[in-house]
Specification:
Number of strands: 2
Structural class: mainly alpha
Largest sheet: 2 strands, antiparallel
Order of helices and strands: HEEHHHHH
Helix content: 25-40%
């Protein structure tokens, strides 16, 4: 497909503004938290300015990188704080079923969290993980509570089966999702 030039199409913007004028308050620029509703009143978008800091917005730049964005070193340089993870896209989970391994009945901590860097890695991602959890709590409460029950059950499994790596990972896990990539 032909490459599009960056920028705005002023004619299209004018037609859209005429078709969809600003609300009764006359604002064109929203600079505070807001929701966008469809015709039935259902929330279709949330706008949360500054919810993610610049340092947590790496993915936006990553997906536009040339080549494989998962390992492109241009987008995954070590930060000022070395938390012990190799730069690149990693999978994190306190309870990961090991694929390709026979006779493994219990989930294990993902490879990136095995070792002395587990606590540092999880503390480094705590804020964006918590933001995603809060958003899920508001937008889909049933899934949020199911995620909490799952993590609670994993904690009971870790204690009953004496799985110290899983227990440590769960101690610092800040997301209701049980896997982050």
């Amino acid at each position: 497909s032909p490459r599009r030039t960056p920028g705005h199409n002023e004619q299209r913007e004018a037609r859209l503004l005429e078709r969809c004028p600003p609300g009764h308050e006359g604002k064109r620029l929203v600079d505070e938290p807001a929701t966008i509703l469809d015709a039935s009143g259902a929330i279709i978008a949330w706008y949360l300015p500054d919810a993610l800091t610049d340092t947590t917005q790496v993915l936006e730049k990553s997906v536009r990188a040339d080549g494989n964005w998962r390992t492109n070193q241009k987008w995954f340089n070590r930060g000022s704080e070395d938390v012990g993870a190799t730069p690149g896209c990693i999978n994190l989970s306190p309870a990961w079923f090991q694929q390709g391994h026979e006779n493994v009945s219990d989930p294990e901590v993902s490879a990136s969290l095995k070792g002395p860097s587990c606590e540092n890695i999880l503390k480094a991602i705590a804020r964006p993980a918590a933001i995603a959890s809060v958003a899920l709590r508001v937008m889909h409460p049933e899934q949020y509570w199911a995620g909490l029950r799952t993590l609670s059950n994993l904690g009971h499994i870790a204690v009953s089966k004496d799985l110290p790596q899983m227990l440590e990972a769960l101690q610092y896990w800040a997301s209701v999702f049980n896997t982050l990539s």
